[in-house]
Known about the structure:
By secondary structure, this protein is of the alpha/beta class. Helix content is 38%, strand content 14%. The chain is built from 18 helices and 14 strands. It has helices spanning 34-41, 79-91, 101-105, 107-110, 125-134, 186-191, 200-209, 226-236, 255-263, 278-283, 294-303, 323-333, 351-358, 384-398, 401-408, 415-435, 439-448, 454-462; strands at 7-12, 50-55, 69-73, 95-99, 116-119, 141-143, 171-172, 175-176, 196-197, 214-217, 242-246, 266-274, 307-314, 338-343.
Amino acid sequence: MSQCAAKIALISPKGPLYRHRGGIWRKSLRYQPLTLTTLAGLIPRELQIRVDLFDEGITDVPLDLEVDLVGLTVITGTARRAYELADHFRQRGVTVVLGGPHVTLIPEDAVPHADAVVVGYAEDTWPQLLRDFAEGQLRSRYDQAPTLDLADRPFPRRDLLPAERYLTNNVFEATRGCIHNCDFCVVPAAWGRKPFQKPVEQVVADIRQHDARKLIFVDLNLIADRAYARHLFAALVPLKLQWYGLATVLLADDEELLELAARSGCKGLLMGLESISPENLRASHKGFNSPEEYVRVVERLHQHGIALQGCFVFGLDHDEPDVFLKTAEFAVQARIDLPRFAIVTPFPNTSLYKRLEAEGRILTRNWELYDGQHVVFRPAKMSIQELQLGAEAAWKHAYSFPSIARRIRHSPAPWPVKLGTNLGYRFYAHNLSRFYNCDWIIGRARSRLRPASAEEQEAVSLSQ
Ligand code: B12
Ligand code: SF4
């Protein structure tokens, strides 16, 4: 059937931090979700489908939506909310499709809540699914073939979400995947280690047609393929952009690439520094990070006018109770522009999850607590409480006024930006426990979940 004229809604469900009411971030720290706009762009034109996008980070989803099909994007932390919405819409007779990182990691978890699940990237499967739906031939599962090619895809439909509700809608991607194999990371577990790349000229064309000057690349590791990165950065130079993205510390070793990144307009990078313990890094298969090099990494980035958002995780097996303040103080002394701290999260079916499960250390499968801020496994060398409270103490130390003063002078970012972001994170540091109390989750969870074990109760109560 080529004349479908169906109506569909694509939804990004809320999580404890990123929700419309009562989340921690106001408008100023949100950016437009590329997942929804990408999926909207992929809808085959000949089906004449009408699509509405709902980002629960900025708006409520009307529960009485009059649509034929709802597609929900699911990460682990939002899985429960996604399933709640899915069940609701299915009861109303709407066809529900679930996809995204969580569905890809653990499809069997999503299956009971969906008419169809989409596993992996969806460049080929989502259009196929919609064609099958139009023909009344929907299958229950679609898997992206490994032959995925990102070339010649439609541009994301950024016009379908309100630009004014976001810090920016200039959100782009050039590549997918990562060549590394860090054992806690979702990427190798969900999508394998083969990198996928958009042709550079098509990335540039997308930036030009959107008239973007200041933009974010959400690629997990922009420098995974250095030859591609060189090509991309060189093509960005004439656009006179300012851009922000993610890369590994290995960029600091490559003077030519670093200089090119800076010349192409790179102003800030997020890097997973993870730990100041070489044992932890080796055990996590992230031995290419050397803590003794971190100070040099920061200096090299600063020399090129690039600020660093350096991310650390707590709770790896070699961490002891003194790790929190040691790491936070290290971040201050190393002059990391914006340090961030998370609790290790063993996302389902990652190598880390499998190991902890085999060791009997997974405490809960309440996915809402899998958000980087709750302890969901039994730590090796400290108590659950020490880990939960220690992470908060690290935030507070790194964002105390004296620590901000020690770091901020050296940051290459303009004063309004570095002051604003530091004060924003200071607020976050002091309100973390309040916003992560998950009242709306735990109220529901109490009524619906099986009785929690004593350890689970401890993990949950610490978050309140
Ligand atoms: C941008 C981003 C964010 C933004 C999200 C909002 C926004 N406004 O964009 C911000 C910064 C807020 C954020 C926060 C968090 N994020 Co985040 N984020 C990303 C990131 C870097 C890019 C996502 C993206 O836009 N990708 C581009 C799109 C096109 O790809 P995609 O989403 O994978 O979608 C494709 C397929 O998966 C599939 N698909 C996806 N959904 C659906 C739905 C349907 C119906 C179908 C058919 C197909 C489909 O089709 C798409 C096309 O192929 C990803 C990593 C990555 N590069 O994917 C992490 C990632 C999604 N985030 C992750 C995490 C853990 C978090 C946080 C918990 C981190 C934290 N501790 O705070 C929070 C939680 C947010 C919440 N909701 O509560 C994890 C999720 C892992 C997991 N199993 O849950 C990821 C994978 C990073 C990682 N390596 O671990 N994040
Ligand atoms: S380098 Fe980063 S994106 Fe790549 S596997 Fe490791 S943690 Fe994941």
